[in-house]
Amino acid sequence: MILLSILFIFNLIIGGVFVWKYVFKSHFFLSQAIFAGAYSIIIFILMVLGIRLNSIIVFFPLVFIPFILYKINVAPWTGLPPNKRRNIYSCLLAFFVLLTLLVGAAHIMKSPVYEGDGLAIWLTKAKMITLDRTIYSENFFDPHRIHDHPRYPLLLPLLESSFFFAVGIDERLVKLIFVYIWVLIIGSLYEALRRKSLNTALASIAIIALIPAYYTLADGGIATGYADIPLGLFYLGAFVLLADYLDTGNRKPLIGAGLCLAFSIFTKNEGLLFTIIMFFFVLIKKRRKSDILITLSAIVLPVLPWLILAQHLPSLYAEHYLSYVPEFYLYLHRIPLIAKTALFEIFDLRHWGLFWPLSIFVFMHRKPKPETIHFAAALMLLIIFYLGIFIITPWDVEFQMKIVYPRMLLHIMPATLFLAARQYAAGAPNKLPAQSPPAC
Amino acid sequence: MRNGGKSYTRMLFWLLLAAQFILSLIILVPIFYESTKEFTASLTLTTEQKQISKYGHFYRSMKDYIRQIPAEDNAVIFEPPGERAAFFWILNYFFLPRKIYTFPEYFMLDNDFTAKRGIKFVLIPQEKRFYFKRHVPRMPDIMTKSPVNFDTLAYPPLFSWVAPDTGPYSLSLCSEYAEVLNTYRDLEILLTDRWTMPQGYWSSIPRGQKVYWFVRSVDQDMTSGLMVFYKK
């Protein structure tokens, strides 16, 4: 089973390498993330077309191997390690990060998926798909068999389900997917920042690798099997690729950002909110008018089948948050409580250490570039909308915030770190050349 | 900060950064260390109130756990999928003597909840073996009062009922197909014998909708008669 698990992850990596070599040549880790999202969409569309899944179909990325071997003329890792700026400090930091990743992965894999939502929402959906080999089953459509949040998106369940097809149902080994996504988050950050400053990149990934919340949060941590970690990856991907687009004006990163936004919609419903905000961001920062259409297409086309299908799934009244919006003024008295709880969470050392004050310090210390201000404003807007949910929630506000709000911070934390590190590295005198020979 | 930043702000930045690493290590090292130890577990399988409703989850691997349970006196072995019921499965991991994690896991073996309603199974750890005993709890009657059967309403109703015990209660609303609200699951445990539907839920019910309602005593595993009203 372990060998099959490794083969499945290798299968995803092969797909990522294909995307990297043929499309996003300067983003190895984000190519992996984009392929993981595309993989879920493809599996979903196969099911929509009436094809029942099996253990052969889920290995379809292996057909890319000849194309990759044809395209690769140097070792795949060439260009990934940093170049001549490596020194004793960077080597030590890199060693420290790798050690943390290994220990963290061991901690994550220690127990099976055990938390309520991880099992009752995401893993349950994955098992339903695995047992039925399709989503067109009474488990999804028969209201008598209604399960938790029947309209929640399916990116993570489809990844987990594909893993189950390859390996068999195993609640412990399936967490390899989360370790893989965790590595992608750290790798994407490193890759995006190392062009600015190697030490900043290494310090940033050391910070994120050690954020306690990722390991200790009972609702949303990596070990719990929630969809918040993949969502954080796609938020980060959208930021990195949009920043690349703003730097270079190329359309490929813009398409990549659009795909990341589409995948965030397919990961969690919060992704829709983020996508709307980022679409307005593109409207403001666009280089060409046609870029708007490109972004819109990249966002809508991949998730359109899901958006249509979701309307036919059973729903629960309790999930209709928008129906409470007309009464929001009745609950405005909650704002002080919401603000207090939000502030306390940001300064919760057991979850975040000093990450948020440190980030605010970096932003405040020197005037950010306009694009950084716009990115930060998008994040702030997202947080405001997130907090707005607690005004209209039919649940107990304090209780729900205690469970949900740290998760929301998990979503934006990698993107925030990316912005803060970019801001820190801005104006660094030691910008690296794009390609230079390795030194040690 | 990198160029021309004042020395005290630079120092403050490095202090914050160092504090971030140190704090993180202080928090994470004991957790990582504990996860290297073997853990024991206790298992509880029960038809908790929340799971007796039409609300269940497939949990295939539960069968593997169950098959490992030896058949002993008072032990009940499920042979899915022969029987179907919704159960609640709680797994307690003991990483540390004073730290107990309770992880609810859900699975569903059957649609026929009524057949097993009120029967409670408890898995008891005995060294490395587990078995579960069967308990049949007391089942008092709850009489629903208002809204009365086939009532047509134009405003959010006040639900009331008469019960021989003092609660707490859980009230459920169902469409013709599925349970759409369970106060215990979605809102709160009701401590009195009445509850007014919030305006938000009322607004989300389509006009003309037939709505069934029933109330249960949360800790007694029982259900009152089903009533129906219509939204005007």
Helix proportion of chain A: 55-70%
Determine the fraction of residues in helical runs of chain B and give it as a percent range. Answer: 10-25%
Major sheet of chain A, described briefly? none
| Average predicted local confidence, pLDDT of chain A | 85
Question: For the terminal residues of chain B, how far apart are their CA atoms?
Answer: 66 Å
Structural class of chain B: alpha+beta
The greatest inter-chain interface is formed by: A-B, 63 and 56 residues
Share in β-strands of chain B: 25-35%
Poorly predicted regions of chain B: 39-139, 220-226
Poorly predicted tracts of residues of chain A: 429-440
Q: How would you sum up the global shape of chain A?
A: globular
Oligomer: heterodimer
Mean pLDDT of chain B: 57
Number of extended strands of chain A: 0
Question: What attributes characterize this protein structure?
Answer:
heterodimer, A: 440 residues, mainly alpha, 19 helices, 67% helix, disordered C terminus, B: 232 residues, alpha+beta, five-stranded mixed beta sheet, 13 strands
